[in-house]
Amino acid sequence: MSEVALVVRRLKRRIMEEDKIYRCSACNKSYVYKAGLSRHQKYECGKEPQFQCPHCPYRAKIKSNLTAHVAYKHMNFRLATHMHQMFQNVHIIAQFIST
């Protein structure tokens, strides 16, 4: 990345920081939108993660983060489970047909 691009990137970042007008009184984190601050206060600030991954010890404060984690980290596990279930169904159907 060129020097000019880095300077432009830093300026954009600074402008975005100045646009964040909604600030959490507990931790001083700021947000552009009031909804972002509300979500932060409801699910994140000072709270323990409440969404548990069914496949590993990972826990998330926001459900969409858990969904992304499962899709990224456990997709092969989910695919294998799905294939196993499909195989069992095919096996049951084959037994039913052969009788």
TrEMBL record:
Domain of life where this protein originates: Eukaryota
PROSITE patterns for this protein: ZINC_FINGER_C2H2_2
One Pfam family in the UniProt entry: zf-C2H2
SMART domains in UniProt: ZnF_C2H2
Name under which the protein is recorded: C2H2-type domain-containing protein
Species this protein is from: Rhodnius prolixus
